[in-house]
Prior knowledge:
32% of the residues lie in helices and 16% in strands. The protein is an alpha/beta fold. An 11-stranded mixed beta sheet has the order 1-3-2-4-6-5-10-11-9-7-8, with helices on both faces. The longest helix is centred in the C-terminal third of the chain and has 22 residues, at 269-290. It starts with 11 loop residues before the first strand and ends in a 6-residue tail after the last helix. Belongs to the amidase family. This is Amidase. Residues 25-180, 235-362 form the Amidase domain.
Amino acid sequence: MATQAHFPDHALVARFTLGGDGPSLVVKDCIDIAGMVSGCGSAALADAAPAAAHAEVVEAVLAQGTRILGKANMHELAFGMTGVNAFTGTPLNPNWPDRIPGGSSSGSAVAVAAGTVDFAIGTDTGGSIRQPAICCGIAGLKPSFGRISRKGATPADSSLDCIGPFARDAAGIEAAMTLMDPTFRPTALTHAPRLRRIAVASDANIDAAFAPVGDLALDAATLSLLDQAFAAGMTVIAAETAAAFAHLPQHLIGADVRTRIAGGAKVSADAVDAAREIGRAFALQVDAALEGCDALILPALPVVPPTLAEATDPNTVLPLTRFLRPFNLSGHPALVLPIRTADGLPAGVQIVGRMHDDARLCAIARWLEPRLTALATKELTA
């Protein structure tokens, strides 16, 4: 159980206590809690009608006796990767205060990283759980697409978005999944997992941090459509987010998000269809790469997260999801665990599993986690 009572600056947009005396959590502000506004971090929704009912995932965790301590802050309209929010404030990254907390589930990641709650619920449309998890030095899971009901989440319609958990370690992710998903059953490995490393181009600091982890893999492969899938994911999220939020009063939306909505409104139906075709081809490619192994591993981020000062340039931020966003398009479950560079900066390992095999993915993460710790302390030789 979490023992700390202090939430970092701007981690929450509302603080309250709801539920039993079980594990504590916070819920991202785009997920409905009855009687409360799902403001999505935006002035444009601050005066919206309160939710009439709990989201299905909220109902699920409350039925398990959990204790919700608040609604977590987020990047406005879940349409950004920095977590910087001029309206609700920017959550303070507990481990690297000068760096972005990540987005869009910034407050959820920050609350867990600070030790204030046992776990948190976020959403991931293009890396929005996994990227802030690594920015803040914790674990995060994007489940298989459709695994956890999105009923009661904003936007209501998405072909990419997944609800998932943050926790401080792999065991916490597994425990959170048992609370969030009534169908989830933890599993045990019967043998050391067969890992396949996906070869990617990343920054030298990331390469050096990931290299010992990659050595745990039996072999390596490439996903030739990875970069195309990243671009296709950007196309789909742009079009779908514009469709969801273009009706809002745009003058009440922050400049960064307003600009992206305007761009999304210009995406053609043909471009979306082409992006979805890339997604289908990429999903088949991932399935093929998983043949003969239990999971794929690759760096979570291609570079270390930028400082808050560096993040004012969008070009330094959107490429952070190059290795994350493609698996929203394919739908495969993907879990991240934190590591650090030689300079002590945040980096991470992403583990990708078979569709709907989320329990095995969590078990593999539990197997891998102590080996990451040993590698970090140079106790593991192979």
